Amino acid sequence: MAGHKQTRVVITGVGVVSPIGIGNDRFWQSLLRNQSGIDFLQSIPTEGLPSAFGAEVRDFNPVEFLRDRKFVKVMCRDIQLGVASSSLAVKDARISDGLLDPERFGVVFGAGRMTCHPQELAAIVEVCRSADGFDPDKWGSEAVGRIAPLWLLRQLPNMPASHVSIDHNACGPNNTITCRDASALLALAEAVRVIQANRADAMIVGAGSSNIHPVDIAKFHNFEGLSRRADDPSRACRPFDFERDGTVVGEGAASFIVESYEHAVRRGAEIYAEVLGTGAGCDGRGVANESAGLGLVRAMESAISASGITPQDLGHINAQGKSTQPDDIVESRAYHRVFGDLALKIPVTALKSYIGHFDAGAGAVELAGTLLSLKNGYVPATLNYEVPDPRCRLNVARGEAQRLNNRTAITVNRTAMGQSAAAVLRAL
After folding, report:
1. Is residue 383 within 8 Å of residue 237, measured between CB atoms?
2. In contact, 217 and 369? CB cutoff 8 Å
């Protein structure tokens, strides 16, 4: 409709559960202090694994964050992290019971691959064991009865959104995004559209993942490439550094309260930032498209166009920065294609150097880092950026946190398959 004024959308709450701290303050202080969360793995045996490093969330008790502790039994680690982060975000936004109309309060949550632990199925394998190895005839008659009735609920990717909705009585629009690294930003984009369509006043957005599992570690190593370093784990993840040799697995989650600007002002909420624009894209067919990161190019161009700003207005870029040789090169090419010579000037930070790589959840934690950067006026340094890669000609923030010249940022994520998302945010 001509003359229609688009609804402004803002973020009013942030909740982080990460390897470098649970809660916004601990997380932010770790970023300011260059405190890495990557260490030798402690929760699983590492013998025979391609890497003994990981970024684990330690001292985490999910019961502390749930309204009903009985739900822990039907939550895998990924779900526990995600639901905990949503509770922190709701508290941070000062949303108390009954404050919001439940039917105008929704959830869009990102999820990754939730791996089943082999021991969960050990009983049925034992039932089917025979002298010849495995007897499938016993599967339906005897073995299936050994599986806990609610076992599957621990693995379903839509369950984080379900639990978050139940915990906070968010009965409005509800959806799950399963697009690995890009999930959190795609969830944010959907929440923005829902609010602008006047289908909700506020949405809980987030994502959580845990890749601290032997199966996930093996998959990451085979398909995306883990660092082969065997000493000093805090130096293993080196985004855009010439000597990078792979990523490091991790776990964590972050959630956000997204609401219309008018609704936030009316209830007196503190605003972290306004979502100026979002975008998405995929590389599509062809080696040339993939090597140029065209999906990421389209995502950034769309987000910037929707935001009404120019690249000169950006204060920093929160990068995907996976720390593999090919991915960082492709990402750098995309920045040069979108920003031209400005790609040599805009500060770039890559938070995987602190928290590792854990697809959907990592994108959410990185978004939290962007919001806290805008709120506090600093961009965290990228850890382990020591030898600049001439194939990644970027202004990578290094050494220590840098004061921002302006508080507008673009944050991006890109999957190994080229699915990409971007969001432009501005502090108010």
Report:
1. yes
2. no
268: number of Cβ within 10 Å: 7
Inter-residue contact 260 to 290 (CB < 8 Å) = no
- Which residue reads 């960082």 in tokens? 328
Torsion of CA 147, 150, 155, 161, to 10 degrees: 180
How many residues does the structure list for the chain?
Answer: 428
Determine the 3-state secondary structure of 16 from DSSP: strand
Same domain, 209 and 291: yes
Give the amino acid at 292.
Answer: A
Joined tokens for residue 204: 């809980």
Q: CA 249, 253, 254, 255 torsion: positive or negative?
A: positive
Backbone angles phi, psi at 8, to 5 degrees: -80, 140
User: 178 or 149, which is more confident?
Assistant: 178
SS3 254: strand
Task: Estimate to the nearest angstrom the gap between the alpha carbon of 293 and the chain centroid.
Answer: 20
Structural domain including 178 reads 9-116+155-426
Q: With a cut of 90, say whether residue 130 has pLDDT above it.
A: no
φ/ψ of residue 34, rounded to 5: 55, 40
The first and second tokens of residue 341, run together, are: 């010579």
pLDDT in tens, 4-39: 689 999 999 999 999 999 999 999 999 999 999 999
Q: Same domain for 235 and 294?
A: yes
Average pLDDT over residues 186-210: 98
Question: How confident is the prediction for the chain on average, in pLDDT?
Answer: 94
pLDDT in tens, 38-77: 999 999 999 999 999 999 999 999 999 988 888 888 899 9
Split into its structural domains, the chain has a count of 2
My answer on whether 85 and 142 are in the same domain is no
Same domain, yes or no: 195 and 295 = yes
Element at 247 (helix H, strand E):
none
